[in-house]
Amino acid sequence: MATAPENRSGSSGREGAVATDPALPPTAVDEAVRESEDSKWTPGKIALWAAISLLGGVAWFMLAIVRGETVNAIWFVFASVCTYLIGYRFYSKVIERFITKPDDRRATPAEYKADGKDYVRTDRNVLFGHHFAAIAGAGPLVGPVIAAQMGYLPGTIWIIVGVVLAGAVQDYLVMFFSMRRGGRSLGQMAREELGVIGGTAALVATLLIMVIIVAILALVVVNALGESPWGVFSVGMTIPIALFMGVYLRYLRPGKVMEVSIIGFVLLMAAIIGGGMVAGTAWGVDVFTLDKVTIAWGLIVYGFIAAILPVWLLLAPRDYLSTFMKIGVIVMLALAIVVVRPEINVPAFSEFASRENGPVFPGALFPFLFVTIACGALSGFHALISSGTTPKLIEKERQTRFIGYGGMLMESFVAIMALVAAISIDRGLYFAMNAPAALTGGSVETAATWVNSLGLAGVNITPELLAETARNVGEHSIVSRTGGAPTLAVGLAHIMQQFIGGTAMMSFWYHFAIMFEALFILTAVDAGTRVARFMLQDSIGNFVPKFKEASWRPGAWLCTAIMVGAWGAVLLMGVTDPLGGINTLFPLFGIANQLLAAIALSVCLAIVAKRGTFKYLWIVALPLAFAAVVTITASYQKIFSPTPAVGYFANNAAFSKALADGKTEFGTAKTVAAMEAVVRNTAIQGWLSVIFVVLSIIVIATAVLATVKAFRNRGTGTERDNEDPALPSRVFAPAGLIPTAAERELLAEWEKVPANLRFERAGHH
User: Fold this and answer.
1) Each residue of 578-595: pLDDT tens digit?
2) Which of 7, 176, 434, 513 has a CA-to-CA distance to 650 between 20 and 30 Å?
3) pLDDT average, residue stretch 102-126
4) HSE-up of residue 87 (Cα within 13 Å, Cβ side)
5) For residue 500, what is the enclosing H or E element?
6) How far is CA 52 from CA 66, 157, 413, 737, in A?
7) How far apart (Å, rounded) are the C-alpha atoms in residues 218 and 299?
8) pLDDT tens string 430-489
């Protein structure tokens, strides 16, 4: 790779300047030109941002201040979109300018480590689709639905404000720092930045939590696709479509992203429509109606294959393909809300906001709302993706803001739309669907009686309404359809049928939503498996350095098999035993995920401190402090609370005493075997909670110590820099969705460069 002393990027005065090849056009827009574009405020631009701010302020006023009997759903759309635009344009720019300080003259790992398998330069829009699809699993769809028990306002504030100040900050910083370190995993970065004690604690915690998260995501897919021929056919067809797109971009029409996007979208729509048609035939029902065990095995095999194939062949194009549907459906739902303008009858703060005995999930608003809504506001799982596949595929450093910060904002919008869908349906229907059968009784008559006994203001549901809703969506019953996903599907169908088709279309929209959710979540399973493989390779690589080479196939295959075997085993146990396997670990998901976020932010805190950016350290310290307080408090309550509905060990003691007293049923357990399973499960949940919170506290403490040490050593030059050496780039690509005027000019220069002089070939797209 040629270098020259001449710096043609126009940034020769900047610290750490990287010399570029004089035979090529600049690999970065001139810094002065870029800053001029950013700081140039025309009357039109001022008017635009003033209008966005005003609309956002009015929307927040209507949601948070006005206390009428109802609130119009359009204010959720306006409040979220306006806040996201302001956060992306201004807050993320502060982070870019003062903390990350990207330099597009530096080559990214996708360029200097290019191997055609894991390190592959990927078009920023394709990569945005891959990253968004990978992070947007079950969380933004399910968490907000369950948290609607507390009312609409707490969840809305946490989702929108939390993502701007916490979730998107974490995703962006982890992605950037991982990219600067050759695409290292979060656990490995922790080991390098926090030392042996903190790093080992982080490695163990991230690996354990990753197994739980991927298994839970897989279980949600199994439950969504079980006995659903439409879903199995349509989701299955995304695999050959993605393979075709991967080959098309790499060999047939390199670089033609828009072209393959249109083809992929048409094929995806054909698969969705075809799925409905196939499900309506006798042979389609016979072939594609699969039991849950079969689907679980299919997921395990698919996860292994997706994790070892070159990333350009299946993973990236399939995730990009599914993004069309994900963003398309959410935007369509937002448009329907603006047109239909449904009235929300749920109070801002519900009767359960100040109590611990909510029927959907136990625990008070603080801290349990903030661990119930994870993805969409702040999610530790995202940190694993941001330090897994994505940093190995980025073309240019400045793209990390668009992909990391922007991708998380898009997921937050998904969460807001899920919340609106859940609260748009009748409140009585919501509780009848989301409360367990032990409370509702399982029938429409008993469910209606139970819901009405709650004494909720304005709620008086009838068995006829429950039965009619089930008929409209094509289900035998919707009573106690817990987990959030069915409620989201009913809410989406309720809004969309007012927009297109009427009541006759409710069944279509409901089953469409169920299939959409399965597709949504599956993309997190395949990406999560690949990331888990990277994490294990990095961990073993501390003892056997060969394993750190991501392109070493024996290591890749072995680590993939181990991680797939781990989450696959607990998945299969859960599918075959409703009281075992992953069902035992499911209650740990929320807190474990947020503890992982605290670990990720701790690593970022130490890195920012070592870079000497103390003036802006609060940008990381603020969300870390909040995440630490929330997760440690939640863990403390789950471990030590004397209330059986909240505390694992209290629940364990209550059921153990019932068994000792010779009882044959107790609480929700109707048999001795079920009672014994509760004793076993609560013991596992309790001790894993102890392990997770202790490991997290160790990581947070070592990060604070590393930060204090960096502050004391500032200016001495003694802090070790764990970034990979800066190498000059030989490529150029725009930073955001739409190229700026300066970027378009530079792209035109690069188009004139002979292909033999560019570090560019089909394989790098």
Assistant:
1) 766 666 777 788 898 999
2) 434
3) 91
4) 25
5) none
6) 20, 18, 17, 20
7) 7
8) 999 988 888 898 899 999 999 999 988 888 899 999 999 989 988 888 898 877 778 888
Q: At what angle do helices 444-453 and 427-434 cross, to 10 degrees?
A: 120
How far apart are the C-alpha atoms of 395 and 432, rounded to whole Å?
49
- The SS3 of residue 124 is helix
Cα 557 from Cα 543, distance rounded (Å): 18
Which of 621, 647, 653 shows the shortest CA–CA distance to 635? 647
Structure tokens at 724: 């990979």
| Omega cis (within 30) before 367 | yes
Rg (CA), the chain: 26
Higher-pLDDT residue of 228 and 100 is 100
d(CA 623, CA 621): 6
Question: To the nearest whole percent, how much of the chain has pLDDT over 90?
Answer: 48
pLDDT surpassing 70 at residue 718: no
Task: State both tokens at 213.
Answer: 């998260």
- Look up residue 305 and give its two tokens: 């294959």
Q: In sequence order, which residues have a C-beta less than 8 Å from that of residue 421 and are 6 or more positions away?
A: 145, 333, 487, 488, 491, 492, 494, 495
Instruction: Collect all residues with Cβ–Cβ distance below 8 Å to 582 and sequence separation of at least 6.
Output: 212, 215, 216, 218, 219, 570, 571, 573, 574
The per-residue pLDDT of the chain, averaged, comes to 87
Task: Round to whole Å and give the CA distance between 352 and 347.
Answer: 11
Per-residue exposure over 350-385, b if at least 16 CB sit within 10 Å of its own CB, e if not: bebbeeeebbbbbbbbebbbbbbbbbbbbbbbbbbb
CB contact at 8 A, 384 and 535: yes
CB contact at 8 A, 432 and 478: yes
> Tokens 């608003």 — which residue?
365
Beta bridge partners, 71, equal 344
What is the identity of the amino acid at 502?
G
SS3 (DSSP) at 370: helix
From residue 683, give the alpha-carbon distance in Å to each of 107, 208, 579, 695: 50, 17, 13, 18
Residue 610 · residue 193 · CB < 8 Å: yes
Give the whole-angstrom CA distance, residue 233 versus residue 579. Answer: 29
Nearest to 520 by CA among 372, 246, 308, 329: 329
Confidence of residue 763 (pLDDT cuts 50, 70, 90): very low
pLDDT-based confidence at residue 11 (cuts at 50, 70, 90): very low
Tokens of 524: 């997190």
Q: How far apart are the first and last CA of the chain?
A: 19
| Residue 631 contacts residue 595 (beta carbons within 8 Å) | yes
- 447/348 Cα distance (integer angstroms): 25
Averaging pLDDT over each range in 9-23, 517-531, 602-616, 747-761, which range is the top one? 602-616
Selected residue with higher pLDDT from 690 and 582: 690
In a 10 Å sphere around its CB, with 0-12 CB exposed, 13-18 middle and 19+ buried, how is residue 674 labelled?
A: middle
Q: What are phi and psi of 106, to 5 degrees?
A: -85, 140
Contacts of residue 22, Cβ cutoff 8 Å, sequence gap at least 6: 4, 6, 8
Within 329-478, strands assigned E span 343-344
Alpha-carbon distance 232 to 614, whole Å? 52
Alpha-carbon gap, residue 92 to 287, rounded angstroms: 49
From the list 387, 608, 483, the residue with the least C-alpha distance to 142 is 483
Alpha helices in 577-666 (DSSP H): 582-585, 589-610, 618-640, 648-660
Is residue 508 predicted with pLDDT exceeding 50? yes
How many DSSP H helices and E strands does the chain contain?
32, 2
- Residue 8, pLDDT > 50, answer no
Rounded distance between C-alpha atoms, residue 259 and residue 620, angstroms: 40
Rounded distance, CA 61 to CA 264, Å? 42
pLDDT of residue 764 exceeding 70: no
